C-alpha cells in the first residue's frame, strides 16, 4: 500500500507567505524558505508553493521565491501560479520545481496539459482544480461542484469531476482539488468533492481547503484522497506535521513516519523530470 502524503502549502504573494479565507483577506504568514525548511524538518513529504497573485495580475510566477525555497529543500517541490505555456513551466522547473500546477490556463486551453506532458512527462504536470458547491443537492455529486479560475474569481460552468477526468486524459498526472467554500474556514475538507474527483480519475488526488485538525486530514484520505494539503494549521503551529502523521498512523493510515525518515533526497529539478 502506498503511503499517504502530508503536504504543507505556501500561498505566496510578493515573496511572502499569505493566508486568508476563500482566497481573500490575506494576512502575512511568514518567509517561504523559512517555513519550507521547518516543514521539511517536521517530516513533510512535499511542499507546494502557489503564487496567488500571478494570474490575477497577469504575470508569471516570481522565480526568486522558487529558487529560495528550493535552496533549503531536499524533498519534492510543486509550484503553481501564472503557468500559461511550456516556457512558463520550463522556467519554474529550471528554478527548482519538480512539478508545475496549472489551473486557469488549462481551462482556457486544455491542450496545454498535453503539451506539458509531452515535453516534461505526466509526472511533472498537476492540475490545480478549484471548485465550489452549486446547484440542487439531489443532482448527484458529479454535477454539484463547479470549477473556478483566476484564484476563485471566475466561474466556468464546468463540473469538477468531469473536468478532472478530462484533464487526466489530456496529461495531468495528479489533481490538486481545493474547495473554495472551505478554504481557510477550518470547517473540514469537502468530502463529497474529494470523493467525486477520486472516483473520476486514475491519477493521485490531493485534497485541499478547510483543514483544522488531524481528524479532518484523516477524513479526506478515507474519502479517496491520496494526499492531504494544509496551510493554516501548520503556519500557526497548531499542529505539527509530525503530530498529524502520528494521528494518521494510529488510525491505520500508512505514512512516512518521523522515526523512519530517510536522508533528504537530491533535488529533482532537472527539466526533463
Query: How many angstroms does the end-to-end distance come to?
Result: 24 Å
Please give the share of residues in helix: 25-40%
Specify the CATH homologous superfamily: Aldolase class I
Shape: globular
| CATH class call | Alpha Beta
Number of helices: 10
Quote the CATH topology: TIM Barrel
Mean pLDDT: 87
Strand order of the largest sheet: 1-4-5-6-7-10-11-12
Radius of gyration, in Å, reads 17 Å
Tell me the count of domains.
Answer: 1
Q: Under the CATH scheme, which architecture would be assigned?
A: Alpha-Beta Barrel
SSE order: EEEHEHEHEHHEEEHEHEHEHH
Counted beta strands: 12
Fraction of residues in β-strands? 25-35%
Structural class, judged by helices and strands? Answer: alpha/beta
Q: Which segments are poorly predicted (pLDDT under 50) over 5 or more consecutive residues? A: 260-270
Q: Biggest β-sheet: count, sense, barrel?
A: 8 strands, parallel, barrel
Report on the structure:
The chain is α/β, with parallel strands linked by helices. It has one domain: TIM Barrel (Alpha-Beta Barrel), CATH 3.20.20.70. 32% of the residues lie in helices and 25% in strands. The chain has helices at 32-42, 63-70, 86-95, 104-108, 111-120, 160-170, 191-200, 214-222, 232-235, 241-250; strands at 5-13, 16-21, 24-30, 47-51, 77-80, 99-102, 125-133, 145-149, 154-159, 174-179, 205-208, 227-230. The protein has an eight-stranded parallel β-barrel, surrounded by eight helices. It is globular. The chain starts with a strand and ends in a 23-residue tail after the last helix.
Amino acid at each position: 500500500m502506498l503511503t499517504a502524503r502530508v503536504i504543507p502549502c505556501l500561498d505566496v504573494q510578493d515573496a511572502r507567505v499569505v493566508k486568508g479565507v476563500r482566497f481573500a483577506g490575506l494576512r502575512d504568514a511568514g518567509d517561504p524558505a523559512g517555513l519550507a525548511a521547518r516543514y521539511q524538518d517536521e517530516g513533510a513529504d512535499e511542499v507546494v508553493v502557489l503564487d496567488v497573485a500571478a494570474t490575477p495580475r497577469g504575470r508569471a510566477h516570481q522565480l526568486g521565491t522558487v529558487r529560495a525555497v528550493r535552496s533549503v529543500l531536499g524533498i519534492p517541490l510543486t509550484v503553481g501560479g501564472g503557468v500559461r505555456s511550456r516556457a512558463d513551466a520550463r522556467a519554474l522547473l529550471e528554478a527548482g520545481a519538480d512539478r508545475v500546477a496549472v489551473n486557469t490556463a488549462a481551462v482556457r486551453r486544455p491542450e496545454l496539459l498535453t503539451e506539458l506532458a509531452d515535453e516534461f512527462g505526466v509526472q511533472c504536470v498537476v492540475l490545480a482544480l478549484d471548485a465550489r458547491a452549486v446547484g440542487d443537492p439531489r443532482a448527484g455529486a458529479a454535477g454539484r461542484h463547479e470549477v473556478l479560475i483566476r484564484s476563485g474569481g471566475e466561474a466556468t460552468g464546468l463540473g469538477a469531476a468531469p473536468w478532472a477526468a478530462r484533464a487526466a486524459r489530456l496529461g495531468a498526472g495528479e489533481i490538486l482539488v481545493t474547495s473554495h467554500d472551505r478554504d481557510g474556514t477550518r470547517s473540514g475538507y469537502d468530502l463529497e468533492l474529494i470523493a467525486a474527483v477520486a472516483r473520476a480519475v486514475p491519477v493521485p488526488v490531493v485534497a485541499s481547503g478547510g483543514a483544522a485538525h488531524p481528524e479532518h486530514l484523516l477524513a479526506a484520505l478515507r474519502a479517496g484522497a491520496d494526499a492531504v494539503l494544509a496551510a493554516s494549521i501548520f503556519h500557526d503551529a497548531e499542529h505539527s506535521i509530525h503530530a498529524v502523521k502520528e494521528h494518521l498512523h494510529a488510525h491505520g493510515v500508512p505514512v512516512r513516519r518521523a522515526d523512519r525518515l530517510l536522508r533528504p533526497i537530491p533535488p529533482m529539478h532537472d527539466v526533463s523530470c
